[in-house]
Amino acid sequence: MAGKYLSMSIQSLGGAQVRGEDLTMTTQSPSDVHTQHVEGVRSDSGLALITRVSEARVRPERFEAFRDFVVSAVRAFPDRHPGLVAHEVLLAPPGTLLYVSRWRSEADLAEYAGERWREQPVVLAGEGEYLVAPLQVRHFTLAPLR
């Protein structure tokens, strides 16, 4: 059903009820509670937030398995990558999954993704079997709304 979505934390995935086709899952590290609402971070707050969007074009018959694979893989990222402010998995079945991550700085992002972070996606081991095309990665910064 177009236009419907559900937002949930990754930690509560086990008991979730999907009410529509699109599903959004978010999680944050307990150490990042003060940045829970990233959209509330102003450009004058001293944070140089960078949003990284990795787009996966998924084999439709493997979509649910890939979703579970990605959610399982990224669940612990906030504890392993201190510069990760927030992240979420966005779904557009049957063939598109986005992993969106928000980083405090270029240095934090480079620590996670390597020195070629601007053009090279991070590929999880075994990910290729689910995909119909290579991952695409894009980066965005916040524009003040005042």
From TrEMBL:
Residue ranges constituting the ABM domain according to the UniProt record: 51-112
InterPro entries: ABM_dom (IPR007138), Dimeric_a/b-barrel (IPR011008)
Leader peptide range in chain numbering: none
Protein name per UniProt: ABM domain-containing protein
Source organism per UniProt: Streptomyces paradoxus
